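Sample entry (358 residues):
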Amino acid sequence: MIEVTIPLNTSRESKNVFLAEWLIPYLARSQARYFVVRRVIEVPVFLAYIDRPDEDVETVRMELVELLTDFVTQLRDEDRTPAAHYEDMWEDVRKIHRYERQPAASSENGVVCRTITHIKRTGHYYRPEDVEIFNYFAFRAQPLLERSLFFLQEDRRRREIPFIFSLFAVASSQFESGYLSFKSHVLGFFSYRHPVLPRYLEAFATDFERSTDALRALRVRAEAAAADPQTPPARLEPVDSLADLISSWSALLAELRAALYAVREKPQRSFFRSVKAQVDYFQFRRLSDFHRTAFSRRGQRIISSRGFGAYRMCVNFVYLLLPTLGISSRKRVEAAYLLVRSIELPHDFLPQSNARDR
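Predicted structure, serialized as tokens:
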């Protein structure tokens, strides 16, 4: 297995183009299994995991160095210029989403390739099997992720929010009242003190008022897809509509949740994990009244259940897809907010006055 790291600190749109029109076609030509992850580790990076022999590592590195050089050379000056103060921006993003600190990537446009025996993952993986399942489904999801990326690239301004909203709606249907996980994320996001957040909330509320009926129709369609999922199509088969994509994601997420549920047949007993969970619950209870109830002793019975454990990891998998699709943190939170508002209509679970007081 070959792991590739490609730092690319250029304009946002140029990074989307690099992935869709340069990196993916290169990887597809090898006819080897692969998946791509897009992250910010102080600077933006692409990570690719390619199922090729170890002896190919230098060939892959040289080919990708040439590919990256050609791509950067043809960029306009305004696209080639790195984002200003990216390290400060990353620190804000990390705090808002409570990401763990990670080693910094090189800020230069240099390709790093290395051979690996297994794919490591950092973050909240509650069982060793979760890592294996996530890696397996990352390979499985790559063709569908690519189709989703191509769909978004055709008209991001019009397609991003409907796509994310529908994907969240399908994911939330994997568990009874599953949308509350997205509510938890939005409330946690707005618990962070930052001067831009009240403006975000005002814009989100305005978008909801303008699109209430359209959002309801999207949610009904997504819930119908979750109730009757279709087999995901083969790689790069043309996709003509959002409905096709959401139906395919519904089928894949149902398989993922079933796999995560199966490995939770036996309770996992660990004193360390039990103490860590109680510390996490205490921190969550401080975020909002909603979290205080959800992470109470009564709420913990649901949170610690087998079904919710599988569902929570399924939602985490969905969130991991979004950076690779070029979807910003703001759009992610907006789609979650719109989903909750659509379900809880007419109640506004996060009035703007409350956000200003935080």
